Amino acid sequence: GIAFGYATCGEVGFEGRSDYAALGTVTNLAARLSDEAAGGQILVSQRLLAEVEENVEAEPVGEYTLKGFSKPVPAFNILALRERAVARG
After folding, report:
1. pLDDT (tens digit per residue) in 69-80
2. CATH number at residue 61
3. Beta strands 73-81 and 43-45, pairing class
């Protein structure tokens, strides 16, 4: 799953035992969409689709009730890159 938005990124933990992490609603959304996707399927959020829709072919797959979200979340399946997006590289 892929989502678009703000996340807090940085070192999490304490000296000697820390990791770099991205935290926030957008990371949770991407993980939940990934969990819902079938093999080979790329589910994206509505906000991400708005950013890339001129470059991809996509279809709505409905709304999902996802853990951590109070309202159903619309999701879209990316079918292919449009030819002009591939040509631009």
Report:
1. 999 999 999 999
2. 3.30.70.1230
3. antiparallel
